[in-house]
Amino acid sequence: xxxxxxxxxxxxxxxxxxxxxxxxxxxxxxxxxxxxxxxxxxxxxxxxxxxxxxxxxxxxxxxxxxxxxxxxxxxxxxxxxxxxxxxxxxxxxxxxxxxxxxxxxxxxxxxxxxxxxxxxxxxxxxxxxxxxxxxxxxxxxxxxxxxxxxxxxxxxxxxxxxxxxxxxxxxxxxxxxxxxxxxxxxxxxxxxxxxxxxxxxxxxxxxxxxxxxxxxxxxxxxxxxxxxxxxxxxxxxxxxxxxxxxxxxxxxxxxxxxxxxxxxxxxxxxxxxxxxxxxxxxxxxxxxxxxxxxxxxxxxxxxxxxxxxxxxxxxxxxxxxxxxxxxxxxxxxxxxxxxxxxxxxxxxxxxxxxxxxxxxxxxxxxxxxxxxxxxxxxxxxxxxxxxxxxxxxxxxx
Length: 397
Ligand code: FEO
Prior knowledge:
Layout: E1 5-6, E2 11-13, E3 16-18, E4 23-24, E5 28-29, E6 34-36, E7 39-42, E8 46-49, H1 57-68, E9 75-77, H2 83-86, H3 89-95, E10 100-103, H4 105-114, E11 122-125, E12 131-133, E13 138-143, E14 153-157, E15 162-164, H5 186-189, H6 191-202, H7 206-216, E16 223-225, H8 236-247, E17 256-260, H9 266-280, E18 285-289, H10 295-304, E19 307-315, E20 318-319, H11 321-333, E21 339-345, H12 352-360, E22 367-368, E23 373-375, H13 384-396
Parallel strand pairs: 8-9, 9-10, 10-11, 15-16, 17-18, 17-19, 19-21, 21-22, 21-23
Antiparallel strand pairs: 1-2, 2-7, 3-6, 4-5, 7-8, 12-13, 13-14, 14-15, 19-20
Helix pairs in contact: 6-10, 7-8, 9-13
MU-OXO-diiron is lined by residues 80, 82, 84-85, 148-149, 167, 227-228.
């Protein structure tokens, strides 16, 4: 039983934490690790909600065997077909061949694409509003398309009032012994990771997240069991409020994030000078070097901050490439409701303010401040007034 944690008397966490994976989805760095959560229901009929990533397979299978404690496995409910949760389906079905796999029509389409050999499994196809009774518990299914893939479902348990939320309300970060969010200082230990996870993984689908939040508002939810990160049993409203903000592209703070690109440090000096001036005007500021910061962290900061300052050199008559990649990511994720301030450096033909303005203009409900900053090669003492004015306009915007 060493890898199992009790969520309630008959709902067990049987997942695992991965601290070896360098990048989630082979894109996002996760120095904090990640957990793959799976939940076992010890009822008259036994149920598992999702499996786990292959990386934690040994621990997962041991947990499942311990949880079953000699019983047969009746149902494997697949809420999400992304392989970080479904990669053990075949193994589980091979070990427990009597199991019935539960999913919706899209679940089984994607399952067949990944694993053609699952065609012969015992299957139960469900749709929105259908229920699965296991004895004491009855689970109702709620479609949650594009949170984060089209087949995603959630399940609500009428006994524990738990919402099995698939990827929603998840976070990067391995579990450090605690299963419940209230066993941590979540705001200090997880919030940045949860925001980075949300913004990069689901950020594009704010409208779909809003649709699910509206459905969830009609349920008496007392626990949230995500597929990643801690389980919520207290202060759910605090975290749901974060999701309300994030999914409506509402800035979490009125802080300023300054992101610069700099070949030799001169644009960096200008960005630092802008940050100093913003601080002097009472603003909270974070400064990032676009070349040295993985773009997923910058995206997380865009979701947190109301104001985004971008300063970079012109490069090959275009935008400094790492900055362009960052802007492209904001476009791909559909950032909204932000105030942008732009600066540029060019020793002979600065053009990035114009080019960045053209790109950012495609975003909805954004303000691009007319007051911009232009440096010719390097910032000098005589430029202080211009920097202060640039910062003042940002602070007051
Ligand atoms: Fe955790 Fe969309 O998979």
